[in-house]
Design goal:
The structure holds 2 protein chains of 2 kinds. Chain A is an alpha/beta fold. Chain A has 13 helices and 8 strands. Chain B is an alpha/beta fold. The chains are: A alpha/beta, B alpha/beta. Chains A and B meet through helix 9, strand 8, helix 10, helix 11 and helix 12 of A and helix 2, helix 3 and strand 5 of B.
């Protein structure tokens, strides 16, 4: 080992605690910034290059580096995103957090040749406030990361000649992964557009144009369509209303024949009074002064099932969906049926 | 009304016995508050010996459930009797708790 390499390795050993601290600070800064910006990623990773790895690098290219400061990847950080367009978003975020060494930063997404298999990622050389040493920040998608990992496992290193047959096959795979990355981003954008369109239709009251699904049901619930009924039921015992999720009722509503949000609205209007009557009959003789925000919808479903002749079996199926399959649901269904049996809507049948 | 809290096989088993009315709910509220601090764990409210639950008792269950959801824990309610099951149903909470 020559003196120059020894000198740099000595410098490395002395600076190691600084790099370890920098690693913690960089990781924490990145995670906090991602959380603040509402960006979800697959992983945030960082590592300090080992002495063995550094010695290997110096053996190959030692003459290129005068001091340890010239080596920019002693600390390497990596953010792996879900979507390709998030790479640019996170890059913009990193530009605000760190000082970027633009001269040495590389966007490898723009570099690869048509006849080479791609290694796409964005490499920023950064300086964190409070530290003199630079570090490398890699930004890539999950698929790009998988590509890099598999290539590494195959023993491919940049610059090593690969037989033509394998190059062609790797190119095809790289193209497929790139298409998959683009398609994931496109689908995410189209889902966002769909949700915006649904919200618009719901706000404009065009419920018959909106098919009932998880997204549309969530949008519909934002308008609190069962609040009036809930408040009437709560008023029976001056109860407080505890907000609870209503997503389990989606399956129930579909099973009861609701295909659009308009169907849900009509069902609510049709059975609202009887749902209130059921609640008054059940709660009126108690001192229960807390109810859930599901009470209105629950009772609408119970009345709907009984009005359509679903009987105890229909109620059992309802409780199996709401509570999970449970041997006690049959007893609960029988009790609910008995409570409802004297109410006017049951006598109509 | 008694409350007994044990650690069994990685689960916190909370055995409630008697009547969970307004007065007894106030008595065990500090125990539930301490339990809420461990709401990231798997908690089982064993109601085998619980005869009755009032709104106050329901509120304690709801507090625990909210903490459990916030902290990524798991809360189960075990062996409730028919009357208590009916209370859960009448108040619309039957779909909120995992009742085993």
């Amino acid at each position: 080992m020559d003196l120059h390499t020894e000198f740099i390795l000595d410098e490395y050993r002395e600076a190691l605690p600084v790099f370890e601290r920098m690693k913690e600070d960089v990781t924490r800064t990145l995670r906090e910034a991602l959380a603040r910006n509402g960006l979800e990623v697959t992983a945030v990773e960082a590592r300090v290059k080992t002495e063995k790895s550094l010695a290997g690098k110096l053996a190959l290219k030692g003459a290129k580096y005068a001091t340890l400061s010239d080596i920019t990847d002693i600390l390497g950080a990596r953010i792996i995103t879900f979507y390709t367009d998030d790479v640019d978003r996170i890059a913009a975020m990193a530009e605000k957090l760190f000082e970027i060494d633009w001269e040495n930063s590389v966007d490898k997404r723009r570099l690869h040749q048509l006849d080479s298999f791609g290694y796409n990622s964005l490499h920023y050389i950064c300086r964190m406030p409070g530290y003199d040493y630079r570090f490398e920040l890699q930004l890539r998608t999950t698929l790009q990361h998988a590509w890099a990992a598999i290539n590494h496992d195959n023993g491919y290193k940049s610059g090593v000649e690969i037989p033509r047959e394998y190059m062609r096959r790797m190119n095809r795979l790289a193209g497929m992964l790139e298409m998959a990355d683009d398609e994931f981003s496109r689908i995410r954008m189209e889902i966002s557009d769909y949700r915006r369109r649904v919200q618009q239709l719901v706000q404009n009251g065009k419920l018959d144009e909106v098919l009932l699904d998880g997204d549309t049901f969530s949008s519909y619930l934002q308008a609190k369509p069962f609040e009036r009924l809930n408040q009437r039921i709560a008023a029976i015992n001056q109860a407080e209303i505890q907000e609870v999720p209503l997503n389990r009722y989606l399956r129930v509503l579909k099973a009861l024949g609701c295909n659009t949000l308009e169907d849900v609205r009509q069902m609510r209007n049709k059975y609202e009074e009887d749902a209130y009557a059921l609640a008054r009959h059940q709660l009126g003789n108690t001192d229960l002064d807390i109810v859930s925000s599901a009470i209105g919808l629950q009772n609408i479903c119970i009345v709907c099932i009984l009005s359509q002749g679903g009987g105890k079996i229909g109620l059992l199926r309802l409780f199996d969906v709401l509570n999970g399959h449970n041997s006690h649901n049959e007893e609960l269904a029988a009790l609910t049926y008995q409570q409802a049996s004297n109410l006017p809507f049951m006598r109509k049948e | 009304m008694t409350i007994k809290i044990d650690n069994e096989g990685g689960q916190i088993i909370v055995r409630l016995a008697g009547r969970l009315d307004t007065a007894s709910a106030a008595e065990i509220a500090p125990d539930i508050q301490r339990l809420a601090e461990q709401a990231d764990k798997h908690i089982v409210l064993d109601c085998t010996e619980l005869a009755y639950i009032s709104s106050s008792g329901l509120r304690l269950f709801l507090t625990l459930r909210k903490e459990s959801a916030a902290k990524g824990g798991k809360l189960q309610v075990r062996n409730i009797n028919a009357d208590i099951r009916q209370v859960f149903m009448m108040t619309g909470f039957i779909s909120l708790f995992e009742i085993i």
